[in-house]
């Protein structure tokens, strides 16, 4: 059923969501929205973003966009999970307390298992552990309490596998040995990715606003440092955005000097037209939500008792998914992004018809 309302701000969002709910609790200051895009493939899963949005409209648009993205990510990762997301509006440093999370847990309970939350920007694993004391609808808790722990190394492994697939397709060998890889943002995922690629013989160029993170990789793996403003211009085989969203925009795309873009950051394209622009410049862009699905795949393996080996094997198959995307893109003349979107939409629609 298509909803009859148009959310504030962006008329392209919201009408295809199954359910959206909000809450305000004066006693703790909890103001949150949960958006369930689809449960056709299974219960929806997506993190809780906690930040001081300027308005409820901005938060609503963010949660609608992100929850839809989670549906596509899980569908392309071959998971029996739907897409959902939550936003909490406010300053985490001021609002975070056990009572606050107790109220939030009760709100999560109200979705009766149609939405499972996890860590995202502004929330931590400790927050998930706290929530887990009050609700079963939380994933990605720490290993001490039976969760799968920090997903970043597994996410990095998935991006690494996506890079190997791009290398296979573009240069006839999946090995990254001798390839130059430029990574923008060497935080939890980017640094792990740099180490994996270096261990396979790749040459790394890295940049980060946090100089200590760069220095560590220069020391540990002999990475070449560069400026944050220069990294996308680096002459390289693969450029890996691993920091913020919208790294591929009208300014940066014309300046890229790589053959492929494969990175961990969410929402790398500033707009859908950027995928066409990259294709026009003969730069292979592996959709971010395909390359960075390792985290959600890892969390999915918490169900029925976390199995790290099975999770890692599943993440490794991102390699096959990316090769399939390349083959289909060539056959159809579409971009990898367009093929991935269509494939995800077909999987979700097929599951919806069965249910
Ligand atoms: P992180 O915060 O540990 O690392 C991000 C790094 O980017 C930090 O070191 C930060 O200093 C740096 N940075 C910030 N602004 C920058 C800029 N303008 N230029 C260069 N570097 C800059 O985060 P993370 O967990 O490594 O995640 C990185 C990206 O991957 C994010 O977009 C995140 O949403 C996405 N992602 C992460 C996971 C995961 O498992 N952690 C899963 C899927 C997607």
Q: What can you tell me about this protein's structure?
A:
- The protein is an alpha/beta fold and 355 residues long.
- The chain has two domains: 3-70 and 81-145, 3-Layer(aba) Sandwich (Rossmann fold), CATH 3.40.50.10860; 152-348, NAD(P)-binding Rossmann-like Domain (Rossmann fold).
- It contains 13 helices and twelve strands.
- Strands 1, 2, 3, 4, 5 and 6 form a six-stranded mixed sheet that branches. Strands 9-8-7-10-11-12 form a six-stranded parallel sheet, with helices on both faces.
- The model is unreliable at 1-5 (pLDDT under 50).
- Residues 151-152, 155, 184-190, 207-210, 213, 228, 242-244, 264-266, 292, 295 line the site of nicotinamide-adenine-dinucleotide (NAD).
Could you tell me the radius of gyration in angstroms?
20 Å
**Which range best describes the helical content: under 10%, 10-25%, 25-40%, 40-55%, 55-70% or over 70%?**
40-55%
The 3D shape can be described as globular
**Share in β-strands:** 5-15%
Overall number of strands: 12
Query: What is the straight-line distance between the termini?
Result: 14 Å
CATH C-level class of the largest domain is Alpha Beta
Ligand inventory: nicotinamide-adenine-dinucleotide
Could you name the CATH homologous superfamily of the largest domain? NAD(P)-binding Rossmann-like Domain
**Low-pLDDT sequence parts:** 1-5
The main sheet comes to: 6 strands, mixed
Give the second-level CATH assignment, the architecture of the largest domain.
3-Layer(aba) Sandwich
CATH topology of the largest domain: Rossmann fold
In total, the number of domains comes to 2
Tell me, rounded to a whole number, the average pLDDT. 95
Tally the helices: what do you get? 13
Alpha-beta content class? alpha/beta
Q: What is the string of helix and strand elements?
A: EEEEHEHHEHHEHEHEEEHEHHHHH
């Amino acid at each position: 059923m298509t909803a009859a309302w148009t959310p504030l701000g962006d008329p392209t969002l919201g009408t295809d969501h199954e359910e959206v709910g909000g809450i305000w609790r004066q006693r703790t200051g909890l103001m949150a929205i949960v958006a369930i895009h689809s449960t056709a493939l299974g219960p929806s899963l997506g993190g809780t973003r906690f930040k001081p949005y300027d308005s409820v409209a901005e938060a609503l648009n963010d949660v609608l966009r992100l929850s839809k993205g989670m549906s596509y990510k899980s569908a392309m990762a071959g998971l029996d999970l739907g897409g959902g997301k939550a936003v909490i509006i406010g300053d985490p440093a001021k609002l975070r307390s056990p009572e606050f999370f107790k109220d939030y847990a009760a709100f999560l309970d109200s979705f009766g298992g149609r939405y499972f939350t996890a860590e995202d920007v502004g929330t931590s694993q400790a927050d998930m552990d706290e929530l887990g004391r009050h609700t079963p609808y939380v994933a990605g808790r720490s290993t001490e309490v039976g969760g799968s722990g920090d997903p970043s190394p597994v996410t990095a492994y998935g991006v690494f596998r996506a890079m190997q697939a791009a290398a296979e397709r573009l240069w006839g060998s999946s090995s990254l040995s001798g390839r130059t890889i430029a990574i923008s943002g060497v935080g939890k995922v980017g640094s792990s990715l740099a180490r994996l690629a270096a261990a396979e013989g790749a040459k790394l160029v890295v940049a980060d606003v946090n100089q200590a993170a760069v220095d560590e990789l220069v020391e540990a793996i002999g990475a070449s440092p560069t400026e944050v403003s220069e990294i996308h211009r680096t002459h390289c085989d693969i450029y890996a955005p691993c920091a913020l969203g919208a790294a591929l925009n009208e300014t940066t795309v014309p300046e890229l000097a790589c053959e492929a873009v494969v990175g961990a950051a969410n929402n790398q394209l500033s707009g859908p037209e950027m995928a066409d622009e990259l294709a026009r410049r003969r730069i292979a862009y592996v959709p971010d939500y395909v390359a960075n699905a390792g985290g959600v795949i890892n969390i999915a393996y918490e169900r029925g008792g976390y199995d790290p080996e099975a999770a890692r094997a599943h993440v490794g198959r991102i390699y096959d998914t990316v090769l399939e995307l390349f083959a289909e893109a060539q056959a159809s003349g579409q971009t990898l992004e367009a093929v991935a979107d269509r494939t995800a939409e077909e999987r979700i629609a097929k599951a919806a018809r069965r249910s």
